[in-house]
Amino acid sequence: MKAEIIAIGTEILLGDIVNTNTQFLAKELATLGIDVYHQSTVGDNEDRILNSFREAFDRCDLVITTGGLGPTQDDLTKELGAKFFNKKLILHEPSLEWIKAYLDMKDEAVVEANKKQAYFPEGSIILPNPNGTAPGSIISVNDKILIILPGPPREMEPMFNNHVVKYLENITGEVIKSKTLRLFGIGESLMAQRLSNLIENSTNPTVAPYAKDVDVTLRITAKGSSEDECNNLINPICTEIKENLCEYIYGEDDESLEFVVSKMLCDRKLSISTIESCTGGMVAASLISYPGISDVFKEGAITYSNESKIKRAGVKKETLDKYGAVSDEVAREMAEGIAKATNTDIAISTTGIAGPGGGTNEKPIGLVYIGIFIKGNIIVKKFNFTGNRERIRKKTTMNALNILRKEILKLTK
Fold first, then answer.
1. Pick from 210, 242, 201, 237: which is nearest to 222 by CA?
2. Which of 7, 116, 144, 356 is the most core-located residue (most Cβ within 10 A)?
3. How does pLDDT run across 133-157, given as a tens digit for each residue?
4. Residue pLDDT, tens place only, 24-49
5. In CATH, what number does 257-411 get?
6. 3.40.980.10, 3.40.50.1100, 3.90.1110.10, 3.40.50.2000: which CATH number matches 2-172?
């Protein structure tokens, strides 16, 4: 099956909104074995939207749209879908009742314009939207399928995952399942080289690498007549990849690095504190998003100035004078000092030059030291990162978490 994705909304064309929906849908459709050959963005204009429908259905049998389902006059997607297929718009009472209930929960009045969102092309499959007032719909006429989804990602993604995936699996007649392995500390090219035989020769299941901002993922996708058959195809490949790249794999599927590390801390009841300079609290923030982390996270300190490093962590003035704030020695004293001050099993320290100013030939922008105190032992890692200020801070945070992940694993071996 070939598909096309159309993002509808003038705000996307003007750059007011970043279109992440198309990226999400393209990846999910690929997982389902559906090829996406065209993607487009069109403004809120009747003629241009109808023309996009004509061109898309000339090329393929499945078109997915996002956006244009709001209550205003320029929200036209359903209306033009009905016009394209020569269908009447019919009121769907359950959707109207949901819209009223949803707005009542938000203490907002239902106006006449809201009722527009409860009308759908005759014969549509209605896709409920528990996260907003814009249900989606599916229109199928003469083997041409139009799937209409809302624009906000927090509404569109759950609707696709909970309803559209099942619909597409039913019409393709196959069960398609994926497992994602998440890696940190290895580049996409080196990973692809080490797995070249698997990636190049894989058919069912397929193995596809994806580069993220600071990490990489491998998606293993299998097709079969049942979920068990897919699992039996995926598991041996997954085992082979883990044997090859075990030191880099930190999680699976939706697990983030911060989730994995936070869970390790909680499961092992390891108390932790952080003391940060260049990251300005990003390490602490990444940990405290995990439910239950308050049981082990004791304190997060931000010590930008030399005075605060001395006062909060007991860093020696002589150390700062001799080596400078961005140094192995200071990172070491920061980690040990905050661990002792807070009486924690673990402490993380970060100190570096994130830019855009402040760098020298000896200590350039991107120079970072990460200190880890763990059960009385201290290690310090030196990095020379590239990128802008935020990217350097993000890389520092992720590397600090990954170093800690590896050190915790050593404790249990």
1. 237
2. 7
3. 999 999 999 999 999 999 999 999 9
4. 999 889 878 788 999 999 999 999 99
5. 3.90.950.20
6. 3.40.980.10
